Amino acid sequence: MATLHPLDPLTTQEIEKAVGLVRKAHGSLHYNAVTLWEPRKAQLMAWLADPEKDPRPHRVADVVAIGKGSKVYDGLVDLNEEKIIKWELTEDVQPLITMEDLQIVEHVVRKDPKVIEQCEILGIPKEDMHKVYCDPWTIGYDERFGRKIRLQQALMYYRPHIDDSQYTYPLDFCPIFNADTHEIIHIDVPPVRRPLSKAPPNNYHPASIEEKGGYRTDLKPLNITQPEGVSFKLDGRTIDWQKWKFHVGFNYREGIVLSNVTFNDKGEDRPIFWRISLTEMVVPYGNPDHPHQRKHAFDLGEYGGGYMTNSLSLGCDCKGAIHYMDAAFVNKAGESYDIKNAICIHEEDAGILFKHTDFRDESVIVTRGRKLVISQIFTAANYEYCVYWIFHQDGTIQLEIKLTGILNTYAMNPGEDTKGWGTEVYPGVNAHNHQHLFCLRLDPNIDGPNNTVFQTDAMRGAGEVGSAENKYGNAFYAHKTPYKKVSEGIADYDGSTSRTWDMANTNKLNAYSHKPVSYKLVSREVPPLLPKPGGLVWKRAGFARHAVHVTPYDDEQIHPAGRHVPQTSGEPSKGLPEWIGDGSASIDNTDVVLWHTFGLTHFPAPEDYPIMPAEPMTLLLRPRHFFLRNPALDVPPSYARTPSQIKGLSNGVTDATDKMSTLAFEPTTNGAKTNGSCCNGS
Amino acid sequence: MATLHPLDPLTTQEIEKAVGLVRKAHGSLHYNAVTLWEPRKAQLMAWLADPEKDPRPHRVADVVAIGKGSKVYDGLVDLNEEKIIKWELTEDVQPLITMEDLQIVEHVVRKDPKVIEQCEILGIPKEDMHKVYCDPWTIGYDERFGRKIRLQQALMYYRPHIDDSQYTYPLDFCPIFNADTHEIIHIDVPPVRRPLSKAPPNNYHPASIEEKGGYRTDLKPLNITQPEGVSFKLDGRTIDWQKWKFHVGFNYREGIVLSNVTFNDKGEDRPIFWRISLTEMVVPYGNPDHPHQRKHAFDLGEYGGGYMTNSLSLGCDCKGAIHYMDAAFVNKAGESYDIKNAICIHEEDAGILFKHTDFRDESVIVTRGRKLVISQIFTAANYEYCVYWIFHQDGTIQLEIKLTGILNTYAMNPGEDTKGWGTEVYPGVNAHNHQHLFCLRLDPNIDGPNNTVFQTDAMRGAGEVGSAENKYGNAFYAHKTPYKKVSEGIADYDGSTSRTWDMANTNKLNAYSHKPVSYKLVSREVPPLLPKPGGLVWKRAGFARHAVHVTPYDDEQIHPAGRHVPQTSGEPSKGLPEWIGDGSASIDNTDVVLWHTFGLTHFPAPEDYPIMPAEPMTLLLRPRHFFLRNPALDVPPSYARTPSQIKGLSNGVTDATDKMSTLAFEPTTNGAKTNGSCCNGS
Fold first, then answer.
1. Which residues form a coiled coil (chains A, B) (predicted)?
2. Which of B91, B59, B57, B58 has the alpha carbon at shortest distance from B74?
């Protein structure tokens, strides 16, 4: 265990050790989660600063277990001391729904007489119940049932053939499943019934494509090779690439977690972020008809972005030389298991990093960029989320998310009016409007933990056109507003001022610009939460009410919709709204966390069906006044030629620059060759 | 000539033929431009519909020539008839500044006594005048000089050594150059002088990097190869790739022009856009001090995005298998010349195109995407603009622009206050705030020329929380506003409603969604024009006053700031504001053009200096209700496995899908191999 980094996820051995200790003390339980309880920041920072002297943080397991009668236990197990240091019965909460919890429901609904009866009403004979499927969702919150009983709602579908896409045959009723008794306790039936669709299947699998004319045959191979391997080094889970250094963690809730992110600036590893992750999301659907208001999944808090993650060994999720990392989890019975290749780490060409040509003499420099991508893909029932954490050589961190998979669908009758709440993407298939709102948790560490967040708005200068101060009216500037109190650090996006946010260290000024060293959040896909203030989603997803919230750092504050999200009523709102309190806490020049909610609003169209082309979304974290100059100037150029060399071409002058400018065409191994080879076509 | 497509740029032979005819008729002139006069739309559409029957459009040269006394002639030469069909003396205009025009200025300023005197005042001895450089800009508009005389302003710099970056040594005065007499007619001298900076050079060339520790040596080669060549076919300049078909044009103003863009939908080439191009841009600077208001270059209208384009043979601007196209232009003397490799056409891997995994049984499909990139790079004095027109297999067209090159800089004294109008990016170097605003001209042809533009806003549903119609407050929908008159088609961006615009054909509904077939403009980098209404930039750059303008199609309306942009006063505003007129013209279900102004506001930081890491910006044109389903379903998957096959694994069932699912691992040439090979690391 001494070889593990304090932030490394629990190993399978550690998980089973933790379970063993709990079992000994508390007997038979169902395990919901056994994950790393991250060391307290102060202790870990001290240890990292001096690994020799300070006590190494203990390995501690954070345990969520469920006993009979949906009793929920939260505990902590010190694996070094081999003892349980905390064990509490937590009243009035429901932990997230695991894949195992989901798997059961389909089997139960198929056998339930009331469900069979409903299927018959829609035209499905009881002998066809094996063709009936369901996507079990958390119930969200339903005031009729509260949160005492652990519930799921079953979104119902039908498959004429096992290989048909069920989303073309949605059923109009919705059973409620009791996870404790494995019973259907209620079925929501709409006032207007919608018999099973008679439309032919709308499939995307190879047999159906072959039937409809087959696959394209004119796509030629495009190969990406790295004959000398990757450019990054791994020390355990700490990655070192192009001056970047950071730890790659992973847990059942957030999936990928990046910690202690630093950039080597002239020999010094300068801290930038202490911790970055996606901590929550909510996907509200826009159809007001009961019971669709329950469709607003918190995919991370109610299911787990780690639990749902794909094993990337099957498909072709990355190209190039790949390094994979596995993920270890606990199952219901308390046994550990692995998801192989949960994380993909690879490099990609990034196109032109910088270029300039002097129009006088065609002296030129062109330098090609490389990027490092840390990615995972998770499947939330119908949807796929592809998450790419991208590191650039110029100090930029980019988060790209691609949405693909399949639209959530509901039944509609021929000629039925969607009333604008959805789109008929195929006969009988109503794809409801929805939003995907992600919550990015940024714990900045800009040259140290004491940071201040500034709001930056592009503003017109004072002075009317014709005035002495602004005669031609062309004055404009960056208006910066520091957030000093939590109440001030609650903000919406403003496209009309190209609003951005700077995470700055006001104790350290850039020697040239005399402005605080900072990293800027540049995010342009920032729709407001469309469900209304005071409504169910607004109450449950407090983090999504605004684009930005800033709070003082607290070790306990990771999950902005609460630790246990399913069946929360939002009365009171859990997580971020609690932490904001009266808003009087200082966030000025102290250890702060920036919570950013971003995403998109999706009005479906037939092009998104039967499987959706990936829709990309991105945001940037860019150094501003952090470096004294472009930190990527020492990336070997593909080609460089100076004015004196151009003269030199005639009079035979050569110098150091000449050596570099021809690098592009020499078989060296410092990257220039690769760039160079693009000059002759690869 | 019969082999040329009517939209092909003029060949060198055609250019010289046109010049020959003009010379014969009008004697000695300086040539500003000789470019293709595109066939009138109606005539070309008729010919394309039936190339055999209809008369083939003549090849016509559009000529701009300048005579003594800055007399400007606009003419048309019919190359088939070999005669001049139009020749006019155009009063009161100045055609754009060519590279030749720019080259002269530096030589003149170095010899001008008044300039030498100013240099001496700043501490540059007259024997060092060969170290003095200037970036000549159009003067924009200076009310003191009007537009009768053809003028340029010389932004002055100094180089201690020929290889030093001059932008670190800006000089504080600005000579005005008369292009007709080659004289300096005036020098703008600031009230406070700023002697030559004593700071050491801030260079990015290889010698200076070697000095400061040298290049990174840990970047391993990343090779991209296409052993079987590219997947596109070219018939002249008409490209056929993955169901897309379009013509690639190029001219001195707009650079790349894409025409007659169609997508093959089940055997039918469906029209989408008649013509797409960047037609104008303006780069206003935000410092109100005289004479910086003159810094607001119209890079396309005042210099030409074609004239300034880079030859891509030198550096490594693209990777993979590249197809290049050259560009032919006229010089001042009337001779034609080529820019080799002005356009780069290549394919790139596009990551995951779509993916879905069924959580029940891990049945899965993952399909990798490919994209086609048509690109050019042009250098506008200090800045580089990299323009990428990207075609995706799902029917999406993406425009990506990367900004790189060098910041425009001005001198500042030690301790001088920038007053927020700029940033000290290096001692003595003030980089002024600025915007890059591009005008994208979209001539939609969505299943035909008669189209209507709709504004789409994401809106909350009616009904308060608790009301019968919206009990839980979760109702939201896409509010669509059709633009029926030109006055209605003038709109700003609204981030709070995630505003997009649909170019729709209301005469044709999608059979499933019953909504008009359309293409959606999704653009999120849309700052307002920051120079104030009524001010100089606002008057000259009418197109930039709003994010969107829609006008009825007119063959003559291509350049939204006017045909001749330099030295326009904006009184009255040229181009788009003229075309808008009283706004009463119908744009409902007729042939329309959508003008979209987008870009970014740049507040410089030291990281952007001495050469700026590429800053990317992108927008999408996406099919909505245009196709009946995802049009990329027939792209060969990297891997596919259906539920029945998973059962089959035990009982030996195989079928068509099995063939496909293993394609990934078979050496075929239909693209699957490439995707497949990524599974084992390339």
1. none
2. B91
In eight-state DSSP terms, residue B160 is S
CB interface of B with A, residues 568-587, below 8 Å = none
Average pLDDT of the residues in B489-507: 98
Please determine, for residue B421, whether its predicted confidence score (pLDDT) is greater than 50. yes
Residue bearing tokens 């030749």: B100
User: Does the CB of B355 have a partner CB in chain A at under 8 Å?
Assistant: yes
With a cut of 90, say whether residue B675 has pLDDT above it. Answer: no
Which residue in chain B has the smallest CA separation from A143?
B472
CA pair distance A583, B19, nearest whole angstrom: 74
Structure ipTM: 0.95
Q: Where are the domains of chain A?
A: 12-90, 99-211, 238-461+476-624
Contact at CB, A214 and B634, closer than 8 angstroms: yes
* Residue B368 touches partner A, C-beta closer than 8 Å: yes
Where residue A313 falls among pLDDT bands split at 50, 70, 90? low
Under an 8 A CB cutoff, do A498 and B381 touch? no
pLDDT score recorded for residue B655: 35
Task: Give me the residues of A, 34-93, that contact B with CB < 8 A.
Answer: none
Average pLDDT over residues A429-447: 98
At A53 the pLDDT is 81
CATH topology of domain B12-90: Nuclear Transport Factor 2; Chain: A, (3.10.450)
**Residue B314 forms contact with A (CB below 8 Å):** yes
Closest-CA residue of A relative to B674 is A221
What pLDDT, on the 0 to 100 scale, is given for residue B297? 96
CB contact under 8 A, B242 and A293: no
Contact: B396, A613; criterion CB under 8 Å: yes
d(CA B556, CA B559): 9
pLDDT at A661: 33
Burial A48-78 (b: 16+ CB within 10 A, else e): beeeeeeebbebbbbbbbbeeebebbbbbbb
Please say whether the beta carbons of A86 and A76 come within 8 A. yes
**Over 70: is that where the pLDDT of B678 sits?**
no
- Of the residues B62, B101, B112, B299, only one is catalytic, namely B299
CB contact under 8 A, A221 and B99: no
- B591: region left, alpha or beta (phi > 0 left; psi from -120 to 50 alpha): beta
Is the fold of A12-90 the same as that of A99-211? yes
Out of B629, B660, B678, the one facing A319 most closely (by C-beta) is: B678
B129 contact A CB<8A: no
Confidence of residue A679 (pLDDT cuts 50, 70, 90): very low
**Would you state the pLDDT for residue B629?**
98
pLDDT at residue B649, rounded to an integer: 57
Q: Do A163 and B348 touch (CB under 8 A)?
A: no
- Inform me whether the pLDDT recorded for B667 exceeds 50: no
> How far apart are the CA of B299 and the nearest CA of chain A, in angstroms?
14
Q: Is A50 in a helix, a strand, or coil?
A: coil
Spatial contact of B176 and B139, defined as CB atoms under 8 Å apart: yes
Give dist(CA A463, CA B614) in Å, integer.
Answer: 34
Q: Are B142 and B291 in contact (CB under 8 A)?
A: yes
For chain A, give the mean pLDDT. 93
**Average pLDDT for residues A115-126, to the nearest whole number?**
98
Question: Taking CB atoms and an 8 Å cutoff, what residues of chain A touch B207?
Answer: 642, 655-657, 660
Rounded distance, CA B284 to CA B293, Å?
Answer: 8
- Predicted pLDDT of residue A3: 83
Contact A600/B at CB under 8 A: yes
State how far residue A80 is from chain B, nearest Cα, in angstroms. 36
* CATH number, domain B238-461+476-624, options 3.40.190.10, 2.70.98.20, 3.40.50.300, 3.50.30.30: 2.70.98.20
Q: What is the pTM of this model?
A: 0.96
CATH fold of B99-211 reads Nuclear Transport Factor 2; Chain: A, (3.10.450)
